[in-house]
Amino acid sequence: MEIQYLGTAAAEGLPALFCGCEICNQARKAGGKEVRTRTQSLIDNKILIDFPPDTYTHAISYGLELGQIGHLLVTHSHMDHFFPVELIHRHEHFGHHAKGMLVVYGNEAVEKAFYDAVLIDRFRVHPLDEAVSFVRLRPFGDFEAEGYHIIPVPADHDRRETCFIYIIEKDGKCLLYGHDTGMQMSDEAWKCIFDHRFDLVSLDATMGKKHSDGYHMGLFDAVSFVQRLKEQGCIGERTIKVVNHFSHNGEMTHVQLEDFAKERGMLAAYDGMKVSF
Asked: How far is CA 197 from CA 130, 180, 191, 234, 273, in A?
């Protein structure tokens, strides 16, 4: 399997749109890996995870043919993870020769956001019935998509909706995609995670070295998360461990994040990074 990190920032991006803090100013000056778009990932060029406002930028930057992708997993309805109005552009009127149906998977809040966006009056002349469809997920309701076995696991994030992290398996490989979440997941969620052995774990580290009481994690939470997995036999020496989803509020540059991760046998994600496992 391969994961490509198309975007690696939290909601405000990095540098943040209206921000003049030290981290944002450094990112503007340095460019390169210090600049981050909103979080989105791609598995084997077949499974897209999340659909932020930066999706168009990602497609251009990395030469992606998004019209050929048939499955979109959405973690939750927050705008930096789901910007559904862009989906109208998969209609033949806007996007010629898109391949078959794009199936969007998500919770009830994501479903509402989806229909609120694509059913507005000015799009009624371009119905998406043959271009995009929606499947509502339930916690632990596993399903198959193009040979991938996918399990939506309830996250510790916005209590107003059932946010998901995902376990994705194919051909003996297993990935845990853990964004956005804190550590205070349910016992059932932890049990589901502990029932698997992972080849790659990708973990939220929004808050940098700061402590977080749920909703998101910081770097030390990610280290603790990895330790739990190790104690349960879910990861081994060859498991790739990645921290991702960074905010300027974490007050760390990419160089600092990279140094912290390297010292602990982890990788700090950056926009465009590919990892094969």
From this structure: 38, 21, 12, 4, 23
Q: What is the pLDDT of residue 92?
A: 81
Mean pLDDT of the 86-104 span: 90
Partners of residue 7 on adjacent β-strands:
40
pLDDT at position 254 over 80: yes
pLDDT averaged over the chain?
95
pLDDT of residue 120: 73
Which residues are 102's β-sheet partners?
132
Residue 115, helix vs strand vs coil: helix
CATH class of 2-276: alpha beta
Spatial contact of 140 and 99, defined as CB atoms under 8 Å apart: no
Q: Is the dihedral of CA 100, 101, 102, 105 positive or negative?
A: negative
**Cβ burial 154-183 (10 Å sphere, 16+ → b, else e):** bbbbeeebbbbbbbbbbeebbbbbbbbbbb
Cα(51)–Cα(75) distance, integer angstroms: 9
> What are the backbone dihedrals phi and psi of residue 274, each rounded to the nearest 5 degrees, phi first?
-115, 140
Question: Is there a contact between 257 and 268 (Cβ–Cβ < 8 Å)?
Answer: yes
The CA distance from 219 to 54, in Å, is 25
Both tokens of 158, joined, read 């916005």
* Maximum separation of any 2 CA atoms in the chain, in Å: 56
Q: So where are the chain's domains?
A: 2-276
Residues in the chain: 277
Nearest to 235 by CA among 251, 249, 223: 223
The Cα–Cα gap between 3 and 44 comes to 6
Q: How far is it, in rounded angstroms, from Cα 189 to Cα 270?
A: 28
